[in-house]
Amino acid sequence: MKWGSVLRLFAVIVAVAVIAVFSTQPIFPNVKWLPLTQGINLGLDLQGGVHVTLEARDTEAGKVNDATMNQLLETIERRVNAFGVSEPVIQREGKNRIIVELAGIQDPEKAVNEIIKTAYLEFKTEDGKTIITGADLKNAVESKDQLSGQVEVNLEFNEAGTKKFAEATAANVGKRIAIILDGQVLQNPVVNEPIPNGRARITGYSSLEEAHTIALLLNSGALPLQTEVIEKRTVGPTLGADSLNKSVKAGIIGIIAIFAFMILYYRLPGLIANFALAVYALIVLAIFSGLHVVLTLPGIAAFLLSMGMAVDANIIIFERIKEELKDGKTLRSAINSGFNRAFVAVLDSNVTTLIATAVLFYFGSGPIKSFAVALAVGILTSMFTAITFTRWVLNTTADTGIKNRKLYGA
């Protein structure tokens, strides 16, 4: 028995056990990021919230089209973010509808009122006087100066706005005129000279994308569409809690069955695979927490599915190792050959699934994207644990002097 290898294995087992306890139990309440489960929010289907469907309608000032609907989406997203709701679902449905789902909202009436309220744009002088509102703004467009390469937002006012802006800029040269949307300062540029023609530009952007966002927000201040709530319902957590409990119960039963099968059929490698599975679960938990993933029922399903794929990768590897041992190779040689020969099969199966998750993420929305992200994280993590961690533990176990082939399933 080589005690150095035994101590290394023992140290790893203790470290994983300690990390597992700290990751799931609130042992240190002063450490805000522990346990890791605090960083994982539950989705609408698990904790309840509000579901709202908005319908945009034509007005005399403008028609429903892609541009005006994008302005409406931008406005709603900015408003929802102000609530601090994590990972809200805001998506367009059809030509003139927008669906908003907010998980964990305690006051749905207030949230809905804030969402549908018309955006209000103001231009204010340093003394707090409002000189122009969104109704005076005709258009805002991002652009890039061909000579200087400077990114800017070009403003164009209507007739009334042109007159007001000319008077205001003439009276405030060298001073700032703040651009405020819903009470928050978007820009606070300095007036360099009087602007009599109703056209102005704002500079100081780092990219066209940033300027585009500001232009959308400015245009949303004079949104020409009328929005109406055609559906509003509160989603209770009862169904979600029941489904969550059933999912957890199914997960526990499945994990116990997997652990028992792996140990009975593959013996020592099976025990190592079970240990690697625990490491896999901790890594996925840490990634979910770091990304502030919103966990939904599809997300739980993806986690359990990826756990099954992690076991499948280990089975492919262990079967290869058994074949190598039956061919008469030494234990260390069989382990190395088994991993090398199984790598291609494991890689192929996981890459094809990753392609499927990419398609789901690109074309899907809401829970479908949640499923795709959770499955992709699980697949990448399972490949890491199966190919690197399991291999290291198996080699270290072989180094301890335990070389009875029957213990390795041969």
From TrEMBL:
Protein export membrane protein SecD/SecF C-terminal domain boundaries: 226-390
Protein localization: Cell membrane
GO CC annotations on file: plasma membrane
Xref: SUPFAM superfamilies: Multidrug efflux transporter AcrB transmembrane domain
Keywords for this protein: Cell membrane, Membrane, Protein transport, Translocation, Transmembrane, Transmembrane helix, Transport
Ranges for domain SecDF P1 head subdomain: 129-224
Membrane topology: Multi-pass membrane protein
Pfam families per UniProt: Sec_GG, SecD_1st, SecD_SecF_C, SecDF_P1_head
Similarity comment: Belongs to the SecD/SecF family. SecD subfamily.
HAMAP family in alphabetical order: SecD_B
Name this protein carries in UniProt: Protein translocase subunit SecD
Species for this entry: Desulforamulus ferrireducens
